[in-house]
Amino acid sequence: MNGKTRLGEFLRTRRSQLSPDDAEVPTYGERRRVPGLRREELALLAGVSASYYARLEQGHSMNASPEVLDAIARALRLDESERLHLHDLARPAGPRGRGRRPAPERVTGATGQLLNALADVPAIVVGRRSDVLAWNRLGHALFAGHLDPGAPGLPDRRPNMARLVFLDAHTRELYADWPSKARAVVGNLRMVAGRYPEDSALHTLVGELSAKSENFASMWADHRVKPCDVADYELRHPLVGTLTVTQQTLGLGPGPNIVVATTVADSPSATALALLAQAAAEVTAEATAPATPSRPNTHVSDS
Hints:
It holds the Pfam family MLTR_LBD. InterPro entries: Cro/C1-type_HTH (IPR001387), Lambda_DNA-bd_dom_sf (IPR010982), MLTR_LBD (IPR041413). Residues 1-27 are annotated as: Disordered. This protein folds into two domains: 3-90, 434 Repressor (Amino-terminal Domain), CATH 1.10.260.40; 109-287, Beta-Lactamase (2-Layer Sandwich). The model is unreliable at 296-303 (pLDDT under 50). Helix content is 48%, strand content 11%. It has a five-stranded antiparallel beta sheet with strand order 2-1-5-4-3, sandwiched between helices. The longest helix is centred in the last third of the chain and has 21 residues, at 268-288. The protein is α+β, with helices and mostly antiparallel strands.
């Protein structure tokens, strides 16, 4: 799907989701055959000609000025993340080399040091496609204790948070309000897809999830954009029960980000997280303990 198609789909979908009442457009009681605003109504709100706006939706124009895009964003009642996404979609694509693969994402030494310093806080390092590049002991125990803790160290075995949320039964059960988490994952992938339109690995991931999950396909078609910055989630952990965590994404520039989970001090959730930390430490200690040497058989027969 090229940039013109993505821009047109986004505009059409968001226009259909904006009712005349929400946009304060009078309808005079007429019956409308389609939901949302008509093209000419949206164009009038944005202060552009109906023919020009129609060309944008049809993919016949990719030279809209920032001022026009901002006017359309205001008419569509887009928030700041959605406005930036609209600008990303309207940006002319650069030259694309055939078969070009995206550069691999790696965890820098500084990021690894920060991850280790957050020993008492669940933390994972995720790439822009939501690949788990690394995690600390508590991050693994909280979000993916059923997986091999050493998996992020090997690129071909890295878990992907989007795949886990939509295709992994354990992760689906972990989130009490799974639809909210799922929408956040899709909204973030939408935003990344607009920012990196030539990322073939991201297109492959979206295609896989669309084919394997009807929920993902439906949410992806909604064209909602949502950065995964800060959100509260109730988790139903199989070891320590129910707890509420605040997930925050700590931006580290253009590279991978660290996602941390915190709890309110002196709360039942903080107690549950402390119990999980203790259990994770015990598992690690058992796994790293030197094997006990076998004792020689000193039994002496009576015969």
